[in-house]
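User: Design a sequence. Structure:
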């Protein structure tokens, strides 16, 4: 794809446009070229350039199938659906403890990630929910054990 070859141009152009957008919104001069519509267009164009740059980067350098990336991609929709539950409960649990906000933030992120990936592995990946999201799968351990027991019996 064309954007895979020119991923750097798209990405850095998008960052520059986003920086210009930030400057114009925060402290830029007010001219006809900085109308709200022009600023919104600049924002959208910069965002699209960054997205196309990142897509190009991944199409160019992440072409091989890697188990970690596959797992993260498979779990992404579940994480999107369930993240609010874990994040909200972690924040409610930490409320009023008097910890610095940076520590609270890190604890919330850690609890959320652990909860999301544990729930995906235990309740989604090889269940009817996982079949609905990704199609049928067989846990790798069972497949290997079955193949080993079949080979041993022959």
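Assistant: Done.
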């Amino acid at each position: 794809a064309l954007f895979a070859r020119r991923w750097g141009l798209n990405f850095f152009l998008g960052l520059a446009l986003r920086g210009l957008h930030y400057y114009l919104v925060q402290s830029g001069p007010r001219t006809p070229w900085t109308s709200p519509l022009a600023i919104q267009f600049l924002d959208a164009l910069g965002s699209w350039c960054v997205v196309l740059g990142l897509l190009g980067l991944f199409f160019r350098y992440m072409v091989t199938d890697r188990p970690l990336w596959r797992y993260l991609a498979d779990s992404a929709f579940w994480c999107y659906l369930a993240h609010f539950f874990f994040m909200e409960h972690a924040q409610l649990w930490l409320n009023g403890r008097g910890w610095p906000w940076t520590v609270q933030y890190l604890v919330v992120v850690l609890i959320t990630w652990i909860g999301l990936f544990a729930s995906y592995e235990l309740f989604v990946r090889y269940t009817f929910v996982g079949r609905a999201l990704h199609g049928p799968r067989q846990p790798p351990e069972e497949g290997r054990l079955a193949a080993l027991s079949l080979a041993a019996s022959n």
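The chain has a mean pLDDT of 84. The radius of gyration is 23 Å.
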